[in-house]
Amino acid sequence: MAGLGISLAGNRDRKKMNVFICGMHPKGAAFKDGRLCIGDEILEVRFNFHYYY
């Protein structure tokens, strides 16, 4: 299973909790999908856990 292949950066000031994509790996799932770009702000993260056996 491959990872998303993104690097994130945020503000040190907790009052400004903006998180942005600052890098992408060309073989990562996010880059291949094409919907995310460097500079995009992450507004929400939903945690869906999938277990493979």
From TrEMBL:
Residues 1-45 form the PDZ domain. Signal peptide: none annotated. InterPro entries: PDZ, PDZ_sf. PROSITE patterns: PDZ (PS50106). This is PDZ domain protein. It comes from Euroglyphus maynei.
